[in-house]
Automatic annotation (TrEMBL):
<dbReference type="InterPro" id="IPR034660">
    <property type="entry name" value="DinB/YfiT-like"/>
</dbReference>
<protein>
    <submittedName>
        <fullName>DinB superfamily protein</fullName>
    </submittedName>
</protein>
Amino acid sequence: MEPKGEKPLSEVKALLKEQINECKGILNEIPNGEGTLYKTTMTVNDLGKIDVYQYIYFLCQHAKRHISQMQNVQEEFSRFKDAE
């Protein structure tokens, strides 16, 4: 998902939360250590090879970070509008 500014903030937040829940659902389906059997390359910050559990955890945390950033921008924008 790449930001293009075409969707309202509420829709983007809902989509990110849906993706987080999808990741959690996948984790629930592989509770017995299966996620450690497969490694993938993570190019972000040169993390190198990480297992599926680490990858899904990264995706969830990354989505949460974006939700937090959107909330901060929305709050800042609201303060700016209130000051006018």
